[in-house]
Write a structure and sequence with these properties.
alpha+beta, 29% strand, rod-shaped
C-alpha cells in the first residue's frame, strides 16, 4: 500500500515537475524522462529515452561528463554540475544537474533545471539596487507594483512618456487590459508563477498598449514581494525593446527569406572558400550533380567538372576573391548530364573588408542558349528573307526611329541605311514627304489597322505603293516603286475611254480565255450581253459550222505563243446570222511578265473591210496602233497622245500636253480654208473627217486623214474629242501620180491627135498628089512637055513628103529620148551665148540689139541639145517675125524664183500676134500666125516639146505690133 502510494507520487512528480527528472543507466543512456523535457529541451520523453545523453552535449562541454565519470569512479554517489545541452531547435541551453547514483537500481537519478533564469536572478540580485537607482535616476525603465489581482498600485519611470501615460492614469487599471490578446496567456502564466515563487521571473517579449492604441514591445522582471510587509505587491520592472524586437524580426525575416531563396532557388547556389571547397550547396545543385549532400560539402567543386571547365572555374574564383563580381558562361560536357551551357555568377562575401567566401550562382541555360541560337538563326533567316524580298522594307519603333532597313530601300531611295538606323523618320526626309506620310502612319499606329495607299513623291519623281502594318513594337512598312503601273493605269483609263466609245466589239478574257468583260459594241455586234458570255470562251459561243477550223487552230496557237496578232474569222450572231470580223488580240502582262489577260477587239468587216482601220483607232489597244490617237478637251487642248502619234509626228506627250495641235502641226502648205472648216465642225460637236497637209517635228510635211469623234458624258454634255490620224501621204502621192498620169495620157493623146493630123493632112496631101502624078505620067509620052512638067511636080511632091517625114521623126525622137536621157547641170549663160554666136550674121543683117542678163554661175538641170534648140528657135522666130517699123530688140533674162526653179524670160519688139485669137494653138504643130511670112509652124511646137521633156513649163504673151514675151521655168 505504501509502495503504491510512493509510485503515484513519483509519477505525479514526473508529470508535473517544472524540473526535468530522468534516470540514466551506467552506459549513459536515458531510461526514463519526465514531461518537463518538452519545455526545457523541446523533445518529448520518447525521443530521449534509449539515446545516449552524451550525443546532446556540445563538444566544448563534454569535459564535464568526463569529470563526472571520474568522480563517480572514486566512490562519490551524488554530484552537481552545470553544462550546456543542444535543444531540438539547435539552440544551446545552460542546465544545472543534480545527480545521485543508485547502486541498488544501477542507474543515475538526475534532476535537471534550466540555469538561465537562475543566472539572471543572481545577476539581478547583485545589480538590483544599482539598477533601481539608475532606472529611476535616468528614467530609462518603468517600475510598477501590482496587487494580488494584478491591478496597478504604483507606476513610475521614463517609459511612461513613450507610452503616452500619466502615472495616475494607470493606478487601479488591471495589467491584462493593456496586454496584447495574443500575449495574455503568456503574461498570466508568468504572473501566476511569480505568485507561487520567490524567485525573479523573466517575462520576455510581450506587447503593451500605448495611450494612442499602438503596441510597444517590452520585456519585464517580476518579483514576488507579496509576503514582504514593506511592499506587499508584485514588483515589475519593464524595459522598452520595440526597436530591438523590430530589428530581430527584420533580421529573422531576412534570414528566413535568404534561407528560403537558398533552399528553393531553382538555380544552383553554393558557397566556396578560397581553395574552391564547397561549404554549402542548395538542393538544385545537389539534384544536378546527382549526389547526396554529404558527398558534396567539404569537397572541391572542380572534382565534379571536366578538366578544361575546372581551369576556367579556378581562374574566375581567383578573380572573385580579388574582390570582383564575376559573370561568365561556359560549355561543359558532363559524363552523366551530357552537354550543358552554364551561366555562372560569383559574388565575393566581404567581412571586415576581407573576402571570406564566394557566393556562386550557377544557372543551367542550355535550353535558353539553344533557344537563343535558334532565335538568332531565325533572325538571320528572317533578315535574309527581308533582304531578299523585292519590296523595300523598314521598321519603326514607338518613337518613330528606324530599327531595320533592307537593301531594296537603299536601292530605291539611294540612301545609306546605316546612317538612318536609329534616326527619326520625320527628321530624315524633306517636309514634302513627311507631310504626305504623317497622317497615314499616325492612323496605323493609333488604330492598329493595316494601311495601304499609293502616293506620288515629288522628291523622287516617282509613285509608290505603301503598306503599313502596326504591332506592339511599332510599324512595319513595305513599299515599291509603281510609277510604271500608275502610268499604265492612267494609260488604260484613257484607252478604256476609247473602248467604251467605240462601236467595235471589245472582249477582255483571263489567261485561260474565259470572258471577263465585253463592251456595248460587242453586244450590239453579236447580240450577246456580258451576262450571257461571262465565264465562257468567246469562240465556243460565236463560232459555228462554217467557221474555218484551220483559223480556229491558228488562233489557239497564237494565244499559246502569247504574241499579239490580227486575224479574220467567220462568226455567228445570237440570231444565227453569219458575219465576218477582223479580230485583233493582245496579251496583257503583269509585273512578273506573265500573261494574265487578253484583250480582243473585233470589227465587223462584212460590208466594209476598211473597218480594220477604224478598229485600230477605236480599240482598247490604241497605244499599240500605228495610227496617231489624240484626246483633247473641249477647247482642243491636248490631254493625251499615244505612241503612234509620237512615231508619226515626232512629238512626245510631255511636249504637246495642254497645247492646241494647230500650234505645232500646221505649216506653209496647210490648207487654211480646210482648217477653218475643221474648226467649225468641232464647234458643232459632230463626227467628221478632214484631210490636211501637216508637218512633223523635223519640218517634214506629209498628208494625214483625221477622224474626229466627240465624247459626251451621261448627261449628254461634251467632255472631250478623240482624233485619230492616219498617214495617207502614199495615197496622196498615188493620187498625184494618177493626176500626172492622166495629164501625161492627155498630152500623149494630144500628140496622137497631132500625129493623126499630120498623117491625115500634111502627109496625105502630097501622097495623093504623088499617086495622081504617077498615074498621069503613065499616060503621057516621055517626050511631051506635060510629062516633064508632071515630073517636076512629082519631085516637089516627094520633097514635101520627105520634109513631113523628117518633122515626124524629129518629134518622135524628142519624145523617145525624154525617158532615156539623163539631165545634167548646164550653164545657162554658155548655151545662150553659143546660140547668139551661131546667129551672129542674121542678127547683124537686121541690126538687132540683144541684151542678156544671165549670171554666169546659173545652172539648170537640162539636156544640152534641147536647151540650145530652145534658144536657137526663139532667136530665129524673133528675127523672122521682126517688125518692119523698128529695129529688132531682144531681152534675155534669168532669175531664181522662191520655189527653187530658174525663170527664163525671152522678149522681143517684133510684129507679135493676137494672143486671144490664137488661144490654145500657140504651141501646136503646123500652126502659123503670119501667113505673109514663109514658115512651117513647127518651131514653137518644138520649143514647148523640149521644155516639157525637161519637166519644165513655158508661157507666152503677145500683142500685135508690140512684141512677144516667152517665160520658161526650169529646175
Amino acid at each position: 500500500m505504501e509502495g503504491s502510494r510512493n509510485n503515484n507520487i513519483i509519477n505525479h512528480m514526473m508529470r508535473y515537475s517544472l524540473d526535468m527528472i530522468c534516470t540514466i543507466d551506467e552506459a549513459g543512456r536515458f531510461i526514463q524522462v519526465s514531461e518537463s523535457c518538452r519545455q526545457i529541451l523541446g523533445y518529448n520523453p520518447q525521443e530521449l529515452q534509449g539515446h545516449v545523453a552524451h550525443d546532446f552535449i556540445p563538444p566544448k562541454d563534454r569535459r564535464t561528463i568526463l569529470e563526472f565519470s571520474q568522480i563517480v569512479s572514486r566512490g562519490n554517489t551524488d554530484y552537481s554540475f552545470e553544462n550546456c545541452y543542444i535543444k531540438k531547435n539547435g539552440q544551446e541551453i545552460p542546465l544545472y544537474w543534480s545527480v545521485v547514483w543508485s547502486a541498488e537500481e544501477n542507474f543515475f537519478f538526475c534532476i535537471v533545471r534550466e540555469a538561465t533564469a537562475q543566472k539572471v536572478e543572481n545577476n539581478e540580485i547583485q545589480k538590483s539596487a544599482e539598477l533601481h537607482r539608475v532606472l529611476v535616476e535616468q528614467e530609462s525603465d518603468m517600475l510598477a507594483l501590482l496587487d494580488v489581482f494584478s491591478n496597478y498600485l504604483y507606476v513610475a519611470g521614463a517609459s511612461l512618456k513613450n507610452l503616452g501615460y500619466h502615472p495616475n492614469q494607470l493606478i487601479g487599471v488591471n495589467l491584462f487590459e493593456l496586454i496584447h490578446p495574443e500575449d495574455i496567456d503568456k503574461v498570466q502564466e508568468a504572473v501566476a508563477f511569480t505568485r507561487r515563487s520567490q524567485a525573479l521571473v523573466k517575462l520576455t517579449e510581450y506587447r503593451y498598449k500605448t495611450a494612442d492604441g499602438q503596441w510597444q514591445w517590452q520585456e519585464a522582471t517580476l518579483s514576488n514581494q507579496l509576503e514582504n510587509p514593506a511592499i506587499k505587491a508584485i514588483v515589475v520592472s519593464c524595459q522598452d525593446i520595440t526597436v530591438r524586437k523590430h530589428s530581430q524580426l527584420q533580421l529573422t525575416r531576412s534570414e528566413q527569406r535568404f534561407r528560403s531563396l537558398f533552399a528553393n532557388n531553382p538555380d544552383m547556389v553554393l558557397y566556396q572558400d578560397e581553395a574552391g571547397t564547397i561549404m554549402d550547396a542548395n538542393p538544385s545543385f545537389i539534384a544536378f550533380i546527382k549526389k547526396q549532400k554529404i558527398e558534396v560539402t567539404s569537397r572541391l567543386l572542380y572534382a565534379f567538372l571536366p578538366e578544361k571547365a575546372a581551369l576556367l572555374f579556378k581562374e574566375k574564383l581567383k578573380e572573385a576573391f580579388n574582390g570582383s563580381k564575376v559573370n561568365f558562361e561556359v560549355d561543359v560536357n558532363f559524363r552523366e548530364q551530357g552537354h550543358k551551357v552554364l551561366s555562372v555568377v560569383k559574388i565575393p562575401l566581404v567581412v571586415e573588408d576581407k573576402v571570406v567566401a564566394v557566393h556562386a550562382i550557377i544557372k543551367d541555360i542550355t535550353l535558353e542558349t539553344q533557344a537563343q541560337r535558334i532565335i538568332e538563326q531565325q533572325a538571320n533567316r528572317l533578315n535574309t528573307i527581308l533582304e531578299s524580298i523585292t519590296d523595300a522594307f523598314f521598321t519603326l519603333d514607338k518613337n518613330w526611329n528606324f530599327t531595320f532597313i533592307n537593301h531594296e530601300f537603299e536601292r530605291l531611295l539611294q540612301m545609306d541605311r546605316q546612317k538612318l538606323i536609329g534616326e527619326n523618320i520625320w527628321a530624315s526626309f524633306p517636309t514634302e514627304i513627311t507631310q504626305k506620310l504623317y497622317n497615314q502612319y499616325q492612323h496605323a499606329a493609333q488604330t492598329g489597322e493595316t494601311i495601304h495607299f499609293d502616293i506620288y513623291l515629288e522628291t523622287f519623281k516617282s509613285w509608290y505603293d505603301i503598306k503599313v502594318y502596326s504591332s506592339e513594337e511599332g510599324l512595319s512598312v513595305y513599299f515599291q516603286d509603281v510609277t510604271e503601273r500608275i502610268n499604265a493605269e492612267k494609260e488604260l483609263e484613257r484607252l478604256s475611254l476609247i473602248a467604251r466609245k467605240t462601236t467595235n466589239g471589245v472582249v477582255i478574257t483571263d489567261a485561260q480565255g474565259l470572258t471577263e468583260w465585253v463592251n456595248e459594241g460587242f453586244t450590239n455586234m453579236t447580240g450577246y450581253s456580258l451576262a450571257e458570255i461571262a465565264g465562257k470562251k468567246p469562240g465556243a459561243i460565236l463560232q459555228g459550222p462554217d467557221t474555218d477550223p484551220v483559223t480556229v487552230e491558228r488562233i489557239s496557237a497564237k494565244l499559246k505563243a502569247g504574241q499579239p496578232f490580227t486575224i479574220e474569222i467567220l462568226n455567228y450572231k445570237k440570231t444565227g446570222e453569219k458575219f465576218w470580223i477582223n479580230k485583233e488580240i493582245t496579251p496583257i502582262l503583269n509585273q512578273a511578265g506573265d500573261i494574265f489577260k487578253f484583250i480582243a477587239v473585233q470589227n465587223d468587216i462584212t460590208e466594209k473591210k476598211q473597218a480594220e482601220l477604224e478598229l485600230k483607232k477605236l480599240s482598247l489597244v490604241a497605244s499599240r496602233t500605228s495610227h496617231g490617237v489624240v484626246i483633247m478637251d473641249t477647247e482642243c487642248h491636248i490631254e493625251w497622245v499615244n505612241e503612234g502619234f509620237t512615231r508619226m509626228f515626232g512629238y512626245t506627250l510631255s511636249e504637246v500636253i495642254g497645247k492646241d495641235p494647230k500650234e505645232f502641226l500646221e505649216g506653209p502648205n496647210t490648207d487654211k480654208a480646210e482648217v477653218q472648216q475643221m474648226r467649225e465642225k468641232l464647234t458643232e460637236a459632230v463626227p467628221f473627217n478632214v484631210i490636211l497637209m501637216v508637218y512633223r517635228k523635223n519640218g517634214e510635211s506629209f498628208w494625214v486623214s483625221i477622224d474626229f469623234s466627240p465624247v459626251f458624258d451621261k448627261e449628254g454634255i461634251l467632255t472631250q474629242f478623240i482624233a485619230i490620224q492616219k498617214d495617207i501621204t502614199l495615197r496622196k502621192e498615188a493620187e498625184a501620180n494618177l493626176v500626172k498620169m492622166s495629164q501625161d495620157l492627155y498630152k500623149h493623146n494630144r500628140d496622137l491627135q497631132q500625129f493623126t493630123y499630120i498623117i491625115s493632112h500634111n502627109l496625105r496631101s502630097p501622097v495623093a498628089n504623088a499617086i495622081g502624078l504617077t498615074r498621069l505620067l503613065t499616060s503621057l509620052s516621055k517626050e511631051s512637055k506635060d510629062f516633064d512638067t508632071s515630073l517636076v511636080y512629082l519631085k516637089d511632091t516627094v520633097i514635101q513628103m520627105d520634109q513631113v517625114l523628117k518633122d515626124i521623126n524629129q518629134i518622135l525622137s524628142i519624145r523617145d529620148r525624154k525617158n532615156v536621157q539623163e539631165k545634167k547641170g548646164i550653164s545657162l549663160f554658155t548655151i545662150c551665148h553659143q546660140a547668139l554666136i551661131d546667129l551672129t550674121k542674121p542678127l547683124r543683117q537686121c541690126n538687132a540689139q540683144v541684151q542678156v542678163d544671165i549670171n554666169k554661175e546659173t545652172e539648170v538641170q537640162a539636156y544640152r541639145a534641147y536647151l540650145y534648140s530652145i534658144f536657137h528657135n526663139l532667136l530665129t522666130n524673133a528675127i523672122k517675125y521682126r517688125s518692119e517699123k523698128r529695129a529688132l530688140q531682144i531681152i534675155i533674162k534669168a532669175t531664181r524664183v522662191p520655189d527653187g526653179r530658174t525663170c527664163i524670160t525671152f522678149s522681143d519688139n517684133g510684129s507679135g500676134f493676137d494672143r486671144i485669137k490664137v488661144g490654145d494653138n500657140a504651141f501646136k504643130l503646123y500652126k502659123r500666125f503670119h501667113p505673109q511670112i514663109e514658115g512651117k509652124g513647127i518651131g514653137l511646137f518644138l520649143v514647148k516639146t523640149h521644155v516639157e521633156a525637161m519637166n519644165g513649163q513655158i508661157e507666152v504673151s503677145s500683142q500685135v505690133d508690140v512684141g512677144t514675151s516667152f517665160t520658161i521655168y526650169l529646175s
